[in-house]
Every structure is written in structure tokens, then in C-alpha cells.
Amino acid sequence: KNQVEQSPQSLIILEGKNCTLQCNYTVSPFSNLRWYKQDTGRGPVSLTIMTFSENTKSNGRYTATLDADTKQSSLHITASQLSDSASYICVVSDLYNNNDMRFGAGTRLTVKP
Amino acid sequence: EAQVTQNPRYLITVTGKKLTVTCSQNMNHEYMSWYRQDPGLGLRQIYYSMNVEVTDKGDVPEGYKVSRKEKRNFPLILESPSPNQTSLYFCASSPTPRSWGTQGYTFGSGTRLTVV
After folding, report:
1. Do B102 and A93 touch (CB under 8 A)?
2. C-beta of residue A18 within 8 angstroms of C-beta of residue A77
3. Do B107 and A89 make contact, defined as CB atoms within 8 angstroms?
4. Distance CA A13, CA A77 (A)
5. Which of B21, B30, B40, B71 is the most exposed place for a label (fewest CB within 10 A)?
6. What is the radius of gyration, based on Cα positions, of chain A?
7. What's the CA gap between A108 and A89, in Å, rounded?
8. Helix (H), strand (E) counts: chain B
């Protein structure tokens, strides 16, 4: 079965620091990859979407990268803020199956003052 | 405001007592889906609906039922809840299943269900 693996499972950083979250996937054929932010007790909210031809996409302090050859993506957070504390979920879609979205288990990020 | 509304937010029930979790969206989306989220696991799809009167099983449909009689509503029904259905449930919607737009899927705020 197609899978999405995220690392690390959890991460604690100090406010103002940068961090990078990883997502490896085996979904094939690949359609697109999304990063979602999920605050505690809330539903996930889309941060960015990347298609096969895109290598880098930014959304404010969030920068996502994609290497479709190695099936890896990363989410880089710059100058972290306390409000960045959340779970970050990588979701990969299959090209031909309209309903096949594979969710990673997420990385729990805690930003401390 | 465009949103997906789930009710209730929290529910504690006993084994075997039928319950319904409601989900409503005000964006005229065709596609709606239910997920459960458990610690250490990614969101797993329970059921989805491509449009009115069109529903299909996801990855973990056992013990659940759904209906899509109108576009905006997609209730999740547990006919005889069991403790292994204790979980955090999310309803989501999108204009189409592929959701190419930057918004992605719109998720509800979640329903935390405990079955004792």
C-alpha cells in the first residue's frame, strides 16, 4: 500500500530558530503533495501544494521543497514563532485515483519561548 | 464565512448506543469525506462522497454508515459504537476530489468521541 512517512515524530525548538520537517513517500504515480498545519483540537489547514514540476514553494515563513525523483519533500520554517506550535501533516495524492490521498502521521512541533 | 461545521465537538457514549455526528458545508462543494485520527497514525478515511447520493467506502469503513441526501450535509452514523471507535473524527469537503486549488480540502474542527 502507498505510504507517507514523516520525520521527526516530534520536535522542540526555541522561538526564533529555524527547523526542517521531512516527508518521504512511495505513492506512485504521483499527483501532488500538500503540507497541512493542524493546531491542537482543530482541523488541518493547507499550507502549500506542490505538483510534479515544482521544486520549491513558499508561503510566508514556510518553504516547501519537493524532489520527485527521490520522492522526498521538506517543510522549512524560518524564524519560528510560538504560534507555529502545531502538527504538520504531509499528504500525497495519486495521479489516477480521484480519492487516493495518503496522510502522513505528522510531526508535532513545539516552539518554546 | 466558508466553513465545514461538525457537531458535536465532544461526545461520550456507551457501547451499543446509536449515534450520529453531523457535518455540514456552506461552500457548495461536491466532495465530502470522513476521517478518523488516532495517536501515531495519519488521518484514515472512513467514507467519502463524490456528490449527492454517491458514497463509497474508504480505508476503515467497518462499523460506520453515511448518507448524502443533499449536497451540504454528510452525517456519520455509528449504529452500534464500540470502544475501538473512540477517536477524533474530521469531516472535510472540497470543490472536487482532486482539489487542485491552493485551499486544499476544508476540514471541520473535529469531533472527539469516547465510547465506554
Report:
1. no
2. yes
3. no
4. 11
5. B40
6. 14
7. 9
8. 0, 11
